[in-house]
Each structure stands twice: as C-alpha cells, then as structure tokens.
Amino acid sequence: MPPLLRSPTLDLRARNIHHQYGETEVLRDISLDFPSGRIVCIVGPSGCGKSTLLRLLGGLEKPTAGEVLQLGAPPAGCLNPLTYIFQDFALLPWRTVEGNVSLVLEDHGLGAAERAQIIADVLVRTKLSEFRAALPKQLSGGMKQRVAIARALAVNPAVMLMDEPLSALDAQTRELLMDDLVGLWTRAPFTAVYVTHNLAEAVRLGHQIVVLSRRPGQVRDVVEIDLPLAERAHGDAMLERQQQHLWGLMRDEAAAADAELLHV
Amino acid sequence: MSERVTFRGGGFTPERRRGVGLVVFVLLIAMAEWGTRTGWITSLTLPRPSDVALTFGELYQSGQLFNHLVPSLTRLVVGAALGATAGITVGVLIGLFSLVRAGLVPLVAAIFPIPKIALLPLFVIWFGIDEASKYALIAFGTFTPTVVATYGAVDNVDRTLIRMGQSFGLSWRSIVWKIVLPGAMPGILSGLRISLTIAIILLVAAEMLGAEYGIGAYILNAGSLYDLERLFAGVVILSVLGVIVSYGIGMVEKRLLRWRV
C-alpha cells in the first residue's frame, strides 16, 4: 500500500523537545519523525502535554528547548504548510461556510475565480456544497468540523495538525467523520499528526501511534499498524487487540495522572 | 393511586410581549391627566398632559419646533459621531497594544468620573462660545464610555479564533479586520447604546451656555420661568430622541449581528 506521494514532500521532525510552563515540566526529551503521507496519532493520559506538543509542532508555541524541523519542501500550490484542525472548530460565526473557507485564501493574492474554484472543490470533497451559504450557528457539530476540514484542505497543507478533532462530537457523528477522514486520505493521502485521547480513533486512523507518558510527557512507546486504513472496519479483531495493548500501556499512567490532579 | 406530576420547569427566559411598554406609558399619562383634572394633583406639582400636548402643538405650528430641533440634532450628531469614532479607535488601540493599554487605561479611568458639565467653562475658553465648544462637550462625554466598552469588547474576542487566524498565516491586518473587529462588534454596539444616551444628556448641558435655539435651551429657558408645560414638552422630545436612538441601535444590531446564536 505505498501511498501516492506528491512530490516534493515535506517531513516534520521534532528534535529533543523540552517544554515547561513556569516550574511545571510538560514535555521531556521528545524526538519524533512525522513522515509524509502517513497519519501519526499521539495518545496519552490527560494533561500529558499532547496538545502542547501539537502547538509546538505548528509554531503556535515556542519550545523551552529543542527544535521542530521541516525536512524537504512543501508540495506545489501549498499555501500554508502546517495547518491545524481544532477541537472546537474555530469557525468565524459571522461568516458563512463559504466565507470561512474563503478567509484563509484571501491573503494569498489569488484571483476571485481561482478562490471560488478552490472553495467549490473542497466543499465537494467534504460534502458541504449545498450548505455553502449557511452560518455556523445553523450547523451541527459534525458539519462544523467538516467545514474546518474543508478550510484546512483549501490551503493544500503539507501536514495537518489535528487537535482532538472529534472529541467535541457525539459517538455516531465521530464514526461518520472517521469514515470521511479515511475516505479523504484514501483518495489523496495527506500527512497528519493526530492528537487524541480516544484509542479507538487512534487505531482506526493511525499508521503509527505514539504513546506519551503522564506529565512530564515522554515517548513511552511507538506502535505501528500496517493494515491499510480503508480495510480497518469498526470492531476488527486485530484493531481490538491493538487497542487493548495500548490501553495496557496507558492504564496505570492514566490512573496515576488522575490521582495526581487531586493533590496538585 | 396515581397522581399527575406537576409541571415545575419553564420561566427565566425573556419573552417578547408586544405593546406592554406602550400600555405602561399610556397608563401613566392617563393617571396624570385624571389626577390633574380631578384636582388630586395640583397643576403646580405636575402639568396636565393635555396642556403639554397643546404646548407641543403650538410649538410645532409656530415652526419653532424645527428651529430648536435642527441645531440640537446637528450638535448631537456631530458631537456623538466625533466622540464615538475617537472612542472606538482608541478602544481598539488599547485592546491591541499593551503599551497603549498601559499608558491610556489609567488616563481614561481618571477622565471617566469627571462630570463633563463641570468642564464647560474650560471648553468655552478652548473652543469659543460657538458650536465648537458644544461639539467638544458632547464628543468628550461620548468618548470615555465608548473607549471602555470597546477595549472590553476587544479583550473578549475569542482567542482561539485569533490563534486560528495565525495558524493559517493570516496577516496582522487581516486578523484585526476580519476576526478582532467583527468579534468585538456586539460589545461595541452595546457600549454605543449607553454612550449615545449620555450624548443626549449632555446636549442639554451644552446648550446651557450661549445657545439661543436648541431643545436644551428651550428646556432651560422654560425651567427658569417655571413654565412646566413647555419644560415637559421639551423633555418629551428628549425622551423620544432616546427611544429613536435605542431603536436605531437595535436595527443596526439586527443587521450586523445576525450571526449571533
């Protein structure tokens, strides 16, 4: 299943990252590679710094020590190499679906026709064409996140940085959106770093799953799953086993992290 | 044995009740009219509403109404526009730049509680006895509440939206114009509701000095003669102005803030 790589490609590399907030050490010595064309999931107990790591990767925060490197060049036509998808969608409530996608294209000196064409294209890919004129307040949570995905696709990113993108949604919507993401990836493989606390999402979407320890977050284990995304069905026995294995790794850490908060 | 569960939810949500406001007005006026007619309220205490209406009719027919209204409205519009524009500009700058905030917030806090009427002589010295000093007084009075409301509104803009803008590489200009300003709009408009009302209050103060025509001059003139009918006719005009301003802002909110949940 060699993913169809667009060339040139861009890999992301985190090198010896340390991070602290004041006295609190959040991340310790994180070194990871995020190869292009693959989805890397980061899981870990709550408060382990996985969302912080994602913000460091995309340059929204500066690591206390260490560095994040981009290796290679972004693909042609890429407007924003490192593009986020946020847990709370971060849509502008005063702009329509179309307007929200248009927002991220307006600063790039594209012609109106070119913009309209990109918008139409990403709305088709996310099945939102008929809602182009709707305001966010009219949309369900799942649709809002699809708008955010459309917005991310519009800038043709080299790496998608996804911060618990499905955590604000209900279980059924989550299943549907996971199918959508698998479909999008299968049609045009993208590179993604996907932070989640949901192990089912991780085994469903990750080619590689990085397990972080509790705070300070360190890489505890890296699990590879070779089964192609499109063949991973809900309730697959192999995935169940992987999920059990991951839970075994995390269980004690999660319990310890949970107890820790009580006497902070 | 069965008992129906009694309903105990509901309430605590504002509902639209048409016409109730009008009924309250009408009732109060009817009471005053009835009281003054029966002698329960002496005409020294409160003028008879019908007499006030008559005075207002005369004012309208003699053409004096517009002689008073036009200069007052001009002062109000020019003064409030200057004050609100400056207020929104300074408020946004305070919201965006920490240096401006550190420098100007204490100053605004110091200016805010000064009764602007007390500074009237100062304005006359600075801007002369003509229109300029009146504009300045109204503008100054509108300025401070607008500044405070505006920087509060900018502070309240959802930071995750700003981070989103940065993460997509939007320019600083775009972030300000497309995220910060629209996000601050609800707060700015509710601030304007207050500061424009203050502008109407200050209109009367501004016309205390050297104004021959104007609603404020008319009221003060009537007041000094204890001509309660004329005084009330003037006051009614101010109230109507207040209602119109509030309605106008309501319309603007409806148009600009359609996106609000």
Automatic annotation (TrEMBL), chain B:
Pfam families in the record: BPD_transp_1
Membrane topology: Multi-pass membrane protein
GO biological process: one example: alkanesulfonate transmembrane transport
Subcellular location: Cell membrane
Keyword line: Cell membrane, Membrane, Transmembrane, Transmembrane helix, Transport
Gene Ontology, cellular component aspect: plasma membrane
Top-rank taxon: Bacteria
Location (main, coarse): membrane
Domain ABC transmembrane type-1 intervals: 69-249
Transmembrane segments annotated in the record for this chain: 20-40, 76-100, 107-129, 135-154, 231-252
The UniProt record lists the keyword Membrane: yes
Role according to the record: Probably part of an ABC transporter complex. Probably responsible for the translocation of the substrate across the membrane.
Family: Belongs to the binding-protein-dependent transport system permease family.
Name of the protein in question: ABC transporter permease
Provenance organism: Sulfitobacter aestuariivivens
